[in-house]
Design brief:
- By secondary structure, this protein is an all-alpha fold.
- It has helices at about 1-20, 25-35, 35-45, 45-65, 65-85, 85-90, 100-105, 110-155.
- The protein is about 85% helix and about 0% strand.
- The relative contact order is 0.02.
Amino acid sequence: MVEERKKEVLDRIIELADKLDKNGTLDLLEGISEISTDAITYLTDPRILKIWANIAYLLHILEMIEPTIVSVMGNNLSKHLSEELKPEVFREPPKLGPMGIIKMLNDKDVQVALGFIFLFLKAFGKTITTSGKQLTEMMDMMQKQFELMKQQRKELGI
């Protein structure tokens, strides 16, 4: 009975391994198993995990913006950047002095871009103000809680 059960289990393992091999999963698992300990250590470093968490949060923010707007603007930004940023531009980057900046302010596209930048700055300023209030309230609550804990420890003689 035990031998028959072992045979069934081995048959299932072989069948599963065959499926994994056919769909490429076995190769993937083999590749993953060859990742060095250093790479795993690096990927699990708290600083790297924090970076990934921040990237995920930024993606979450983008996700909340109207998808059509993000898609259309992203596509057009990519198109126009590739038109403007040719390899030659990097060989001799344009230099812009104070008078050049003033001249650029007459450009319609620059004016529209500045308008959007100022909309972003306004939203960012509101964010800083709101966040500052919220963080101040949180710190005040934490301070009160800390004082209460100190008082309780004092009463308990700790």
